[in-house]
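Can you give me the bound-state structure? Components:
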Amino acid sequence: MSNKDLAVVLVSGGMDSCLTAAIAAENYELAFLHLNYGQKTEVRELESFNKIADYYSVQHRLIVDMKHFSEIGGSSLTDNKIEILNADLNSEKIPSSYVPFRNANILSIAVSWAEVINANKIFIGAVEEDSSGYPDCTDSFFKAFNNVIKTGTKPETEIEIVTPLLRLSKSDIVSKSIELKAPLHLTWSCYKNNDIACGICESCALRLKGFQLAGLEDPIPYRDKPSYI
Amino acid sequence: MSNKDLAVVLVSGGMDSCLTAAIAAENYELAFLHLNYGQKTEVRELESFNKIADYYSVQHRLIVDMKHFSEIGGSSLTDNKIEILNADLNSEKIPSSYVPFRNANILSIAVSWAEVINANKIFIGAVEEDSSGYPDCTDSFFKAFNNVIKTGTKPETEIEIVTPLLRLSKSDIVSKSIELKAPLHLTWSCYKNNDIACGICESCALRLKGFQLAGLEDPIPYRDKPSYI
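Here's the bound-state model for the whole set.
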């Protein structure tokens, strides 16, 4: 066992959470939390989660099913009646992939777990600029949530949400991942497919643009690529 | 369909949530949300939930499984390794039945659902005085959570948590329930049993004390009763 303090890291299996784990690993012993919320690429994301956890030799792993997001609906990621649109990175509208209040649900689970295993940080790889206007990816949201943690846990509990990627661009994320040897080849970002990344959904498009701007080649294969790549 | 605005009501199946539903029903069309979180009396509570929903002719019902509370552990309500202690109503310690950060988890689900079905209130029957020092049952917690909702939902969304029972005593709750014809005979409070209420767990003790102070008879049968009743 390590003498470091314990930190819960939210690991979806994507590039952002992979870098977040790499950053947390510099100062903390890691506890990895993964959420299945009925997203269409659930199986592939979990596979990436476990590969990244193996890479960092993570002992504490918790995988939580949040199937109610499918029942609640309202997002193209979990509701089969809503189509996953191709990316429009210039739109200021909240995209159809927005899962209502998802981060509050995820962070609440993380805090419950952190309080029981005595972790005092929760790392989440939210990216404000690239998050397509999701309201629960903003600095003011995380600040407000830290205040809820203070008021809603035991007096002796000290848990804080840490968002090291909040102000980074996708190209910063690519560069920083290479610097910290984060295993990007193990990650999965595509919203549509479970086998080969589609290359054209919002998440693939953001990822590919990040590699392009960083002047680097994405190590995973794609079925298709947007015209600007 | 009613012309009233829609309100989500958190209905555990207990006395407090039953009165909360009765209060919400005065001004709102009701949507009932129930959480199974691996508690030992899950089946009996769900039965009460459905009976109360039938009583108020509630169309919108959502039942969510939060099995991860059992995996996370840390509470006598969900962890078989921790014993449910008999009540000590004079203790100031946080009791073993405390489920870490439970209300934040529950409210997050309620907000996600409310945002999708266009409900603008969430009624929760939290009782500060009687809640045995659970940190997530306080006014400051609910205020902080309302702030998280403002920052973490779509700009056009207006959802507010309402806590009509927060300052009431259990005897106030009994009296007010009778006044509003809330169906207390359909409710379930016991933490221990699924058939006949034990009468001696923390939750039974609080309930029985409430009826005693209100000078009324509890309509449900008990296996045992504390010596002061």
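A couple of observations. The first strand of chain B starts at residue 6 and ends at 10. Strands of chain B lie at 6-10, 29-36, 60-65, 121-123, 160-162.
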